[in-house]
């Protein structure tokens, strides 16, 4: 592997992953709507369009074609998709539901768009590369709360549902991908609770030691990626490599 693509690289985990792989001496392709704060000769920046602007995915066909050409040029063997969304603190304020009465159309649509639709759009857009590149590994960040069998606390209706749908989508895509590329691995990955803007409002009652720094999370996820094999394709994995139930 000579290069890594990080989608949603401006997130806390995305930035930490970029830093980790640059320190390993690899080329890192930073794909985000936002520019990086770091500078490195091995860092290539691709400006992402606002994919939420239109419901017509074909509008972005030329963008994905250009990204695919870049992946081929740099012989990318590892892709992380770090796109995800949990809450909005500005008006209209949108927070995970504690009860069904707090559910609303705006929250549900926003959650599904950013946690399912846009990740699926990237998966579809990069499919020609995934289906033809030997040994390619694609790790889609998801969440353990998307596990239906693990749900013992309730709440967070929209977020749980979006992540469960994302896990199912990746699982289904892995079956299709195996038909054209038996060496590929595409998985969903629970990164653990990371100290970031996404988790900040919900850190108060965490058990001691559960909150990880972005750098710690990046190191753990990189270890999972390093050990990932084609037989793992379709699984939901924990940050420590354990298989999580759907």
Automatic annotation (TrEMBL):
GO CC annotation, single:
cytoplasm
Q: Name one Pfam family in it.
A: adh_short
> Matching InterPro entries, A to Z?
Fungal_SecMetab_SDRs, NAD(P)-bd_dom_sf, SDR_fam
* GO function terms (MF aspect): oxidoreductase activity
Q: What is this protein called?
A: SDR family NAD(P)-dependent oxidoreductase
């Amino acid at each position: 592997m000579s290069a890594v693509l990080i989608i949603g690289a401006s997130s806390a985990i995305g930035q930490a992953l970029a830093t980790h792989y640059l320190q390993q001496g690899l080329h890192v392709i930073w794909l985000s709507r936002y520019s990086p704060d770091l500078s490195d000769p091995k860092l290539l920046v691709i400006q992402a369009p606002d994919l939420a602007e239109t419901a017509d995915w074909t509008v972005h066909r030329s963008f994905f074609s250009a990204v695919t050409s870049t992946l081929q040029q740099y012989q990318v063997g590892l892709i992380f998709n770090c796109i995800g969304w949990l809450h909005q603190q500005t008006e209209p304020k949108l927070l995970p539901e504690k009860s069904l009465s707090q559910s609303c159309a705006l929250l549900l649509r926003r959650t599904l768009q950013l946690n399912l639709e846009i990740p699926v759009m990237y998966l579809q857009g990069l499919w020609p590369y995934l289906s033809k590149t030997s040994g390619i590994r694609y790790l889609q960040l998801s969440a353990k709360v998307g596990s239906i069998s693990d749900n013992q606390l309730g709440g967070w209706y929209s977020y749980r549902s979006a992540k469960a749908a994302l896990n199912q989508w990746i699982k289904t895509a892995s079956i299709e991908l195996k038909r054209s590329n038996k060496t590929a691995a595409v998985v969903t990955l629970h990164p653990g609770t990371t100290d970031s803007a996404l988790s900040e409002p919900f850190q108060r009652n965490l058990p001691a030691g559960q909150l990880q720094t972005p750098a710690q999370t990046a190191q753990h996820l990189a270890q999972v990626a390093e050990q990932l094999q084609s037989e793992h394709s379709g699984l939901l994995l924990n940050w420590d490599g354990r298989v999580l139930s759907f």
